[in-house]
Design brief:
The protein is an all-alpha fold and 298 residues long. The chain contains ten helices and two strands; from the N terminus they run αββααααααααα.
């Protein structure tokens, strides 16, 4: 019974991610067409300008096409589901649909800021925010500041998610739950700070040398790796909330991420890499949940 519930929740996760990702690309398409750009689907996860298009488009139009989609996804699929979950309690399947939508799209704006220094050809490749920066001719200092800020925004979004989604799990019945020790809190927090330093160092490499391979390793593997490791240390595994988090979010999330990765590998698209962002995000939400219950219970 528990296994079938996990599979159903994993399916709801996959459906939610596929749907919100497709609509995100449609946002690119609609805004692009609205400002006069002949945008089109280049792949399942990419909308942009085909290489054969010789038209030189205005920088502002390119910035709008690339920049509006992350903002709209953040608001429609991130902020709005979080707002609904904060206002009332939901049962399945709505809890999974709203929860996964928020987990994927609320921190997304932070991810885009983190990639502001990444290289982009403003044709649908690379990150959206990097394309905006390229179109507007942003300075290196501005891009570096946004990249560093993005990591903080990403963590703040996950903190809000953990607090709100915890209210869907009846935390008042777990007021005596066991939290993590002070030592683990300090170690976990230090690792999260190291993640910030790794992202900043990756930004410096991208700005100074343009070496995308090394710079992105510090941002993706260093930054998100530190979030995952720090969250695993900060999660209170003896906390009764952890059992609910594990059954409702962690296990279905692992199944869903595995399915998306397999699909992405077979069809050679971005779904193959979504787990790099989703797995640390889910763990961080769990860390917030298991450490916030006593505060909320008061």
């Amino acid at each position: 019974m528990a296994f079938s519930k996990s599979l159903l929740r994993a399916l709801l996760m996959v459906v939610t991610i596929f749907f919100t990702t497709t609509v995100h690309e449609l946002f690119h398409l609609m805004v692009g067409r609205a400002v006069g750009i002949h945008a089109q689907f280049l792949s399942l996860t990419s909308v942009g300008i085909h290489k054969s298009d010789p038209t030189v488009y205005p920088p502002l139009s390119l910035a709008l096409m690339n920049g509006m989609a992350p903002v709209l996804s953040f608001l429609v699929f991130g902020v709005f589901p979080l707002y609904l979950c904060a206002r009332r309690r939901f049962s399945e399947p709505w809890l999974s649909l709203l929860g996964w939508s928020a987990i994927f799209n609320l921190p997304y704006i932070g991810l885009q800021l983190m990639l502001a220094v990444n290289l982009s050809t403003v044709t649908g490749s690379g990150s959206d925010m990097a394309a905006v920066m390229e179109s507007l001719g942003a300075t290196r200092n501005v891009r570096f500041a946004l990249g560093t800020l993005g990591y903080i925004v990403f963590l703040l979004a996950l903190y809000m998610l953990g607090r709100v989604l915890l209210t869907q799990m009846n935390p008042l019945s777990t007021a005596k739950s066991i939290g993590v020790s002070l030592k683990r809190r300090v170690v976990g927090s230090v690792i999260l700070v190291l993640g910030l330093l790794s992202v900043s160092f990756g930004d410096v490499i991208l700005i100074a040398t343009g070496n995308q391979k090394i710079g992105m390793k510090f941002i993706a593997l260093g930054g998100f790796g530190c979030i995952a490791l720090g969250a695993m240390i900060l999660i209170s595994y003896r906390n009764s909330v952890f059992q609910k988090f594990q059954s409702h979010w962690l296990i279905p999330g692992v199944f869903g991420m595995g399915a998306m990765a397999a699909f992405g590998i077979v069809h050679q698209n971005d779904y193959a890499d979504f787990w790099l962002i989703m797995f640390p995000s889910v763990l961080a939400v769990g860390a917030v949940m298991t450490n916030s219950v006593r505060t909320i219970a008061r």
